[in-house]
Amino acid sequence: MSNSSTVTPSLPEMEDIPYNKFNALVFETLIFLERFYPKIRLNPWVIRAKDNCHPDWTEFRTGIVMAKLEKDFVQLHEEWDIEEKKANAPLYTREQNGKVLRITAPWVLNRDSDSV
Fold this sequence. Notes:
This protein has 2 helices and 2 strands. By secondary structure, the protein is mostly helical.
């Protein structure tokens, strides 16, 4: 468990690999049309177009998936930080004779000097 002063790590920055956006759009359009016209898959022009556009479409989709993963990664670490704070909270706190007395669980790592 890490303490609350740790910084939430982030994924390494992904290089922006250039891709042709038009080719990615063509590939997406062909996939969409194949849902309604299944025989279009057999057309040699469609086959050649998909073969030509597939690498650009792959980069396009990879960028979308990586952006979603980055968002989920940050959200998950924020949730873990909240859960960790709850788990490390003192179980019982009371003030006596001007001193704060705390009873904590044995697995709590960061104990204050006035903890029992």
